[in-house]
Amino acid sequence: MIYGLNILAQDIQDDSDNVTRFLMLAREPIIPGIDRPFKTSIVFSLEEGPGVLFKALAVFALRQINLTKIESRPLRKQLLGASDDSNNGYPKYFDYLFYVDFEASMADEKAQNALRHLKEFATYLRVLGSYPVDTSMI
């Protein structure tokens, strides 16, 4: 036990495929500056159809925003209580959720424009947060 928490797996830091992500939670959104490099993490869902994922990712390419991570999670037939501007908190069904990290701050106008564009056809969109890129660890 560490900090009153149970250890679920030992020595994962020694696994070469291990990736550790840390989260900082806040009650109110904090808009970061653009004075240093930032990454932003989002999650979204799309209707199924040809070229829909291409269209979603193109909103970033058109604005020269580099994507650093893309993951998809299948959620077929699972009801997700999602709260965003478009669905008023009512549970919805999603086929896939896409988790994307990109190199830009939410204070950056091109990031705001990309997300406004994505929101036009995403069935769900949530900004998980923006955070500074720690270049001293690279």
Automatic annotation (TrEMBL):
It is an enzyme of class 4 (lyase). One of its GO terms (cellular component) is chloroplast stroma. Pathway: Amino-acid biosynthesis; L-phenylalanine biosynthesis; L-phenylalanine from L-arogenate: step 1/1. Its EC number is 4.2.1.91. Its main location: plastid. It is found in: Plastid, Chloroplast stroma. Transmembrane segments: none annotated. It comes from Juglans regia. Residues 41-132 form the ACT domain. Keywords: Amino-acid biosynthesis, Aromatic amino acid biosynthesis, Chloroplast, Lyase, Phenylalanine biosynthesis, Plastid, Transit peptide. GO terms for molecular function: arogenate dehydratase activity; prephenate dehydratase activity. InterPro entries: ACT-like_dom_sf, ACT_dom, Preph_deHydtase, Preph_deHydtase_CS. PROSITE patterns: ACT, PREPHENATE_DEHYDR_1, PREPHENATE_DEHYDR_2, PREPHENATE_DEHYDR_3. This is Arogenate dehydratase. GO terms for biological process: L-phenylalanine biosynthetic process. The keyword Ribonucleoprotein does not apply. Coiled coil: none annotated. Converts the prephenate produced from the shikimate-chorismate pathway into phenylalanine. Residues 1-27 form the Prephenate dehydratase domain. It catalyses: L-arogenate + H(+) = L-phenylalanine + CO2 + H2O.
